[in-house]
Amino acid sequence: MKHHLWTILFGIVLAFYVFREQHFAFVYYTIQTFTLEFAYFAALTFQQERIANTIWPFLVAPAIVVCVGFWVIIAPMEFSEQPPTNLVIIFVTHGLNMVAVLAERKKVFTNDIWKPILYTSIYNTFLALYVGAGGRSKSGHLPYWFAQYDQPIGWIFAALAIASTGVVHFIVAVPKDDQLHKTSTKQYIV
Predict the structure, then answer these.
(1) pTM of the model
(2) d(C-alpha 100, C-alpha 122), whole Å
(3) pLDDT at 72 > cutoff 60
(4) Where are the beta strands (DSSP E) in 43-142?
(5) Is residue 130 one of the residues assigned to a domain?
(6) pLDDT tens digit string along 97-116?
(7) Predicted pLDDT at 144
(8) Sign of the alpha-carbon dihedral angle for 56, 61, 64, 66
(9) What residues make up the domain containing 84?
(10) If you average pLDDT over residues 49-63, what whole number do you get?
(11) Which of helix, strand or coil describes residue 109?
């Protein structure tokens, strides 16, 4: 039942955000991660366990990084310059989504660390290419204030995002059950 509620809430918020921002919505790591979360919960809602299990390891660490990164780094700077225009979207896409993911109480495994790192690397490559080609947000500004790839700050934040995703995954991950029971046995023939 909870999967249905997350699917409905996330679907409504995502649809509203895309309606408001149009194609510019998807230039944000937050919205791409939120879309993955929506796809995960929708797959569970429609009993597509295999699809949900495929998506799961890609989204856990990014959901946590989005929430913590937003509230610790981005929000203090943005909210000091201008107050948020829609608190519901902010809280759902930068907090409630992480609560939904953590409430799953579902394991991620250490050997899947490459998945969130790959996902975050692809996003950062996309962002560098997008900004380098002159792409901006709907308001005409850089999608993120630090997305200045002609200066070191852009690359520092890209590396920080990739590294923090890997570290978070490593912190929340557990070894696979078969890894726990593997022991190195040697047989000596005398």
Answers:
(1) 0.88
(2) 24
(3) yes
(4) none
(5) yes
(6) 999 999 999 999 999 999 99
(7) 84
(8) negative
(9) 2-180
(10) 97
(11) strand
Supply 168's token pair. 């978070």
Helices first, then strands: H and E counts in the chain: 9, 0
Buried b (16+ CB within 10 A) or exposed e, 74-86: beeeeeeeeeeee
- 185 lies in some domain: no
As a whole number of angstroms, the distance between CA 111 and CA 118 comes to 13
Write the CB contacts of 176 (distance below 8 Å, at least 6 apart in sequence): 109, 110, 111
For helices 152-172 and 49-69, angle between their N-to-C axes, nearest 10 degrees: 120
- Within-domain flag for 167: yes
Q: Is residue 185 pLDDT above 80, yes or no? A: no
The string of pLDDT tens digits covering residues 129-178 is 999 999 999 989 888 888 888 889 899 999 999 999 999 999 999 998 75
Q: Which conformational region is residue 32 in: left (phi greater than 0), alpha (psi within -120 to 50 degrees), or beta?
A: alpha
Q: Is residue 38 part of a domain?
A: yes
Count structural domains, the chain. Answer: 1
